[in-house]
Amino acid sequence: MISQSAPSIGRMWSWKITASSIVILLFVALLAISFGPVEIGFPKILRTLLGLPGAATGQERTLLLDLRLPRVLLAALVGAALATSGAVYQTVFRNPLADPYLLGTAAGAGLGATLAFTVVAGDVYALLPIFSFVGGILAVLTSFFISGRFQAEPNTLLLSGIAVGSFATAIQTYLQQRNSNALRPVYSWILGELTAASWQVVGWSSFYIVFSLAVLIFISKKLDGLMLSDEESFSLGINPQQLRIIAVAAATLATATAVSASGLIGFVGIVVPHLVRGLTHRVTNRSLTAIAFAGASFLVLADLGARTLLSPAELPIGVITAFVGAPFFLFVLRAKRLAN
Amino acid sequence: MISIEDLTVRFDGQDILTDINLTIETGKWTCLVGPNGAGKTTLLKTLLGVYQYSGSIKDKGFEVYQNQERNVAFVPQHPHIPTGMTVMEYVMLGRAKKDGWGRETRVGRDFVAQVLTQTQLFGMQHRFVAQLSGGEMQRALIARALAQEPNLILLDEPTSALDLHHQISVLNNIEILKEHGVTILSTMHDITLAAMYAENIVVMLDGRVTLAGSASNVIHSPELRKAFDDRINVYTLDGGRPVIMANKDYLSERERPQTEV
């Protein structure tokens, strides 16, 4: 008789993966705050953050608290948003290579940013996040509307997202042709940048990102049901259409916020979910929290690279993520076990 | 008991199911047969509660549309096979309604272990569902349905695309459910197999029910032949078991070669 005791099956949920991803993020964040043109030791950072005696003072304190800390926090927020949204999109669209920018978020936000650079007369950088945020959300709503209100089959939604994206990109290109002076700032925004990080940006973006990630993590266990056909998930007690809308809405809000705070940073949404899935051998949804923390660590590290590799010059962070992401993407395509 | 009265289902202004009146007995296996496009799958999904309809379908006195109070297992003909999910995780999804999403109870895990053994999947639980063969995947689907401990199980062509050996193994697995008082409703292309396992057979044609009754009555009725355009013959084996085979020589009006005068 084969032993049928329950423990032999193995637990599917584990807090260990989430706990280790938090530890990694804390370490990486400390590393990123420490490194730069002026290096600050770990003990001093900790003493400053915790308000203990022996804290950094003067210029060092400003550097630490007003420049590096908000920048690391923003990188972590954006990384978490993009990685989690990517994982959720991959589940909802049942496509392992789905990207958080897929439904037109990126193109819509790009068009919004271009409009800001070409139309706004005053302080462009103050209005840039609003323009790109509205552009991204409008593009996704249009995709939903075209694909048949909110009842759409995932594939129809995907295709209309691509169509809306191409349309927005076409307008964006036209505007750029007409206003060549906007080319350079738009281009640098498209490559992604965290240089504008300030406590104010961290403040408003954390509000939307934390909210949408909380929603996604709250529904993450049910997301497994969306990997089945709609009839199957209904029989398991889910309303698939409703759940899909909540998931896409939250993921889009997180993505649009990330884009308006930092421009278009590519590949995070694909690389991180696959990496975590490959390392933990788990369904993506099971490790959504771990994916959020891993995404945060990934982008904090990428930003550290962007700041220090060509110091004092700064590389666009999108170049770093693409440099790591593109070969990885090909690796995923080749390694069928991961992509399957 | 499920009682269907004056059921009509309409997509884009077109009737897919028309005026169906039918009673499905509790704890029995009822099989829907009929040619492709007769509306068998639509009837199955309507009974699941995902399609809007006019008329009424009452399961224990309650309308079925969007009714999540019921515990109905659905085994589709073409399942979406989730990537990166193991057999264990897949079968555990069946516990969602009883134990809650993402919650693992001791009872649930023991039950799943038992179901895996019953469907000969024990030992494969750590493999990815995407890597299973056709027969194994079908057994995994049945296992998930069993894990659900349903009152009603709906199966859409559970044996198509399986070899004979696996067909019998899957059908035997389904039959076990009857011992637990579960109502079974399936569609099946193979009428011989339907007659072998189901107590009741419902013949469908063009979105209507043309005949319903006990398997032996339906098999020998001329209505069954009519539904298949007179293209089938019913033979009886020595043991009294019916065998239904396609009539090779029959050609319909359309297929007959046109001879020039």
Automatic annotation (TrEMBL), chain A:
One of its GO terms (cellular component) is plasma membrane. It is found in: Cell membrane. The chain crosses the membrane at residues 17-38, 69-89, 101-120, 127-146, 196-219, 245-276, 288-309, 315-333. GO terms for molecular function: transmembrane transporter activity. Pfam families: FecCD (PF01032). It is a multi-pass membrane protein. Its main location: membrane. Keywords: Cell membrane, Membrane, Transmembrane, Transmembrane helix, Transport. Belongs to the binding-protein-dependent transport system permease family. FecCD subfamily. This is Unannotated protein.
From TrEMBL, chain B:
It holds the Pfam family ABC_tran. Transmembrane segments: none annotated. The keyword Transit peptide does not apply. One of its GO terms (molecular function) is ATP binding. Residues 2-231 form the ABC transporter domain. InterPro entries: AAA+_ATPase (IPR003593), ABC_transporter-like_ATP-bd (IPR003439), ABC_transporter-like_CS (IPR017871), P-loop_NTPase (IPR027417). Keywords: ATP-binding, Nucleotide-binding, Transport. SUPFAM superfamilies: P-loop containing nucleoside triphosphate hydrolases. PROSITE patterns: ABC_TRANSPORTER_1, ABC_TRANSPORTER_2. This is Unannotated protein.
